[in-house]
Amino acid sequence: MPPATTRSTRDAAPQRLSRPAQVAEAIKSWVVEANMKPGDRLPNELEMIERFGMAKGTIREAMRILEAQGLVKTRTGPGGGSFVHEVSEARARALLGNYFYFKDLTVTDIYQLRLVLEPELAADLAGQLSADQLAALEANVARYVTPPKDAEEERQQHIASLDFHKLLASYAGNELLGFLIGFMAQMLSDLTVMRRLYEPRNYELWKMGTDHQIELITALRLGDGPRARAIMREHMEAAQAFMVRQEAEMERRFLAGR
Amino acid sequence: MPPATTRSTRDAAPQRLSRPAQVAEAIKSWVVEANMKPGDRLPNELEMIERFGMAKGTIREAMRILEAQGLVKTRTGPGGGSFVHEVSEARARALLGNYFYFKDLTVTDIYQLRLVLEPELAADLAGQLSADQLAALEANVARYVTPPKDAEEERQQHIASLDFHKLLASYAGNELLGFLIGFMAQMLSDLTVMRRLYEPRNYELWKMGTDHQIELITALRLGDGPRARAIMREHMEAAQAFMVRQEAEMERRFLAGR
DNA sequence: ATCTATTTGTACGTATGTATT
DNA sequence: AAATACATACGTACAAATAGA
């Protein structure tokens, strides 16, 4: 382990960090330099106390910082301790969601991105999915093949249809693209969908949405990239029109992240 | 403040949280429910200790968790304490960067997104920028109007030209789009650009890059959205070809976040 | 099933540091 | 300069969890 004077991964932050934060940064750069992998064990509390020459509480606060960032997990008991941990997607979403909590993202903002990114993903995935993955997509669509009876069911189906996109995102070869699409779907799920429930059930729109997804699965199975892209694009345009009409507002809350 | 039993913003995480984590979550949902804004003050340590009926260390660890997530800042001294804080962009980038630390993002992955997102932003900004903003962009380009003399200068210019995109990102009306473009530029800046320095200075490429940016500024000033989009698209295609040729690898390290 | 060893988790008292008035 | 109001850090004692004998 490097000396406690190792302050930061970069000199970009000239601020005086609190001691726990310094310790946390030191551990981070140690993890990088030692090329530690998820599952690798960090020194235990007592060792840390000795090596850094700091009190127990200070070390514990440092570990909490790393834990909050999703970089370590800690277990009690024999063989316990702190372990390097791969930041989970859920955590990353939550952390990024915190950033946007104070901004006021609109549905329009999100759809501006979905409109170009979702078709991109669809084209990528054409011909790349396993039978299992295609089946999972079909099973998801099955959750909303019947038109909704009431507003509540419509709400649930809307959430479920967003799961379709999360599923696709999880198959992405490009992890950045996959993460973003999953993040946006999560944000939309967390909307107070239809805060004012517009009464006119829109059968046409529901029909179009599910049809798009079914056609999309076919195109993906056949490996027809251009067609998958075009269908997704249409799907997004329809969804956008729907969402914007609802004037749905982003619900301001913090996401949960394990 | 809600009772300490308020565990999480959502019941999505069935895990047993540590007490500090519970306290942190309770405070978060309290901030949301009380609709607190950045700058608002949280109860001080002693009050927290009393309200949650927990020891000082536990409370402090909780505050550290929130601090690590960028949601609060703490000051010592009279009138000090913990304050709600808007998550900074730098912090959000760092936190998201941690997630990708364990994935192996390639330059190709990033460019797949830049290729569609940067032109989108360029089109948005056409006719929207103030004289100051346009001047700032021009000033940035001025940092690399002269061809690089050596590999080191080429590296610096490359970083500087990424700043051009960060600048554009900061002007974005769509905060999600702006954040992403800034994030990607940051990731690229952090690359070990040219780990193997290819010796053939490529004057043509350098020329094309700066010309694109100069033309782009003109299109933005004139409010010609389609043209701005087209130029940026070309710019991205050229940059992608360059980067991929360098076979640049992502440097695995943690970003700094204030 | 019980004990035991290991390691984190919680509690609390005290002293120090820091910024405001 | 001094008093005040806060967080910060330390050290110790004990509680809880978990794996293995």
Automatic annotation (TrEMBL), chains A, B:
Q: Which top-rank group of organisms is this from? A: Bacteria
Alphabetized UniProt keyword annotations = DNA-binding, Transcription, Transcription regulation
Q: Which SUPFAM superfamilies match?
A: GntR ligand-binding domain-like, Winged helix' DNA-binding domain
Residue stretches making up the HTH gntR-type domain: 17-87
Q: Which PROSITE patterns match?
A: HTH_GNTR
Q: Which PANTHER family match?
A: TRANSCRIPTIONAL REGULATOR, GNTR FAMILY, UXU OPERON TRANSCRIPTIONAL REGULATOR
Q: What is this protein called?
A: FadR/GntR family transcriptional regulator
